[in-house]
Amino acid sequence: MSHSNGVTEGLNNKIKLIKRIAFGYRNFYNFRARIYLQRLYTF
C-alpha cells in the first residue's frame, strides 16, 4: 500500500492561493476564517 501526501500538498496550495488573493485582510483572524470557509465548502 502506497502513501501519498497529495491531500496535504493540495491544502497547502489552497492556503497559499488564499494568502495571495487576501493580501488586504486586516488581521489574522479574518484570514483564518477565510481558510475555514474554504475547507467547509471544499470537502
Automatic annotation (TrEMBL):
Keyword Hydrolase annotated: yes
Keywords: Hydrolase, Protease
MF terms in GO: peptidase activity
TM region(s), chain numbering: none
Superkingdom, taxonomy of origin: Bacteria
Domain (Transposase IS204/IS1001/IS1096/IS1165 DDE): residue spans on this chain: 3-35
GO BP field: proteolysis
PANTHER family: TRANSPOSASE FOR INSERTION SEQUENCE ELEMENT IS1557
Protein name per Swiss-Prot or TrEMBL: ATP-dependent protease
Organism: Enterococcus faecium (strain ATCC BAA-472 / TX0016 / DO)
Lineage of source species: Bacteria, Bacillati, Bacillota, Bacilli, Lactobacillales
